[in-house]
């Protein structure tokens, strides 16, 4: 009965858990940083992504893995969850402004980075690695490879990132 009193139904309960996960994830991403280099700030955020997912696997899987198949977040919930992504997109834009990333759509670049991160976190949480590797190290290397690929040095001036 408590579920119905507080959340209305099972969907309401799952949405509350989903939003709580994104709220806590967003709080972790929003911790004030002492890092002054724009690319290092992006790396710091991606390290936070890895750490938070590793320390909160059930929440992460509910948020990104749709473990509750019948749950479809409301638009208001999706809008609230999207705020966590904005932190990375803003950091990518700041890295562009600092001349550390090439010209292009900072949001699209952030999605590329977020996607690489998500894929490696998901593989780790599923525990289906075909090789014996330090996945945290592989994760950091992959983030670095993508950031190097998005650097001005790796791209022709004014052409944006090569895809």
Description:
The chain has seven helices and no strands. It has helices at about 1-5, 10-30, 40-55, 55-65, 75-95, 105-125, 135-150. The termini are far apart.
Number of helices: 7
Alpha-beta content class: mainly alpha
Helix content bin: 55-70%
Please report the total strand number as a whole number. 0
Tell me the series of helices and strands, N- to C-terminal.
Answer: HHHHHHH
Poorly predicted parts: none
The main β sheet shows up as: none
**Straight-line N-to-C gap:** 53 Å
Gyration radius over CA? 18 Å
Our estimate of the beta-strand percent is: under 5%
Shape: globular
Oligomer: single chain
Rounded mean pLDDT is 89
Summarize the structure.
The chain is mainly alpha-helical and 163 residues long.
Question: Which properties best describe this structure?
Answer:
single chain, 163 residues, mainly alpha, 69% helix
Write the layout of secondary structure elements.
Elements: H1 2-7, H2 10-29, H3 38-55, H4 57-65, H5 75-97, H6 106-126, H7 135-149
Helix pairs in contact: 2-4, 2-5, 3-5, 3-6, 3-7, 5-6, 6-7
């Amino acid at each position: 009965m408590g579920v119905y009193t507080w959340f209305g139904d099972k969907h309401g309960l799952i949405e509350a858990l989903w939003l709580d996960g994104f709220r806590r994830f967003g709080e972790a991403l929003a911790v004030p940083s002492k890092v002054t280099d724009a690319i290092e700030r992006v790396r710091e955020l991606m390290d936070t992504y890895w750490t938070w997912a590793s320390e909160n696997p059930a929440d992460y899987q509910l948020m990104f893995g749709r473990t509750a198949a019948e749950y479809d977040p409301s638009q208001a919930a999706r809008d609230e969850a999207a705020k966590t992504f904005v932190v990375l997109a803003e950091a990518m834009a700041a890295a562009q402004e600092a001349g550390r990333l090439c010209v292009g759509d900072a949001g699209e670049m952030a999605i590329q980075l977020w996607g690489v991160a998500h894929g490696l976190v998901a593989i780790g949480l599923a525990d289906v690695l075909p090789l014996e590797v330090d996945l945290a190290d592989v994760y950091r290397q992959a983030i670095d490879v993508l950031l190097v690929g998005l650097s001005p040095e790796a791209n022709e001036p004014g052409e944006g990132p090569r895809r």
